[in-house]
Amino acid sequence: LLSKQLKHELKTYYIAGRLPTKPLNLPQRMESGWGETNSSFIFSMENGKTLENCMISRVTSPERAIWNAPRNPCFSHDLQWFKGKLKQSSYEKKIYDSEEFVMVDIEIYRVVKKNENDNSTEIMEIDNVNN
């Protein structure tokens, strides 16, 4: 799970995307190319709002769901982290009013099962990169 915090019109928003748990057929690390998945989604939520108020968009073009690039991995053109761009193309709907944003912080999380015998999960922060 990737999460990004951004500020727009004096409000803080969180935008995020979910990568599948199974490995994608992505190109080698230093090459750019598409990764295919049916299980990816992106979402946005204003800080302080509930999950019921978040905007979720599921992938509609699995063959173009993930763009793997050395300096700008992203969720197709829909969520381009390091370029600060949002343009609806391979996911069902826009997740934010504007097509541009300024990144304040990026955090990477992993959701793991606590116990093999039940469905409880734990969210672990993997990395926190301040912009």
UniProtKB/TrEMBL annotation:
Domain of life: Eukaryota
Protein name per Swiss-Prot or TrEMBL: 25446_t:CDS:1
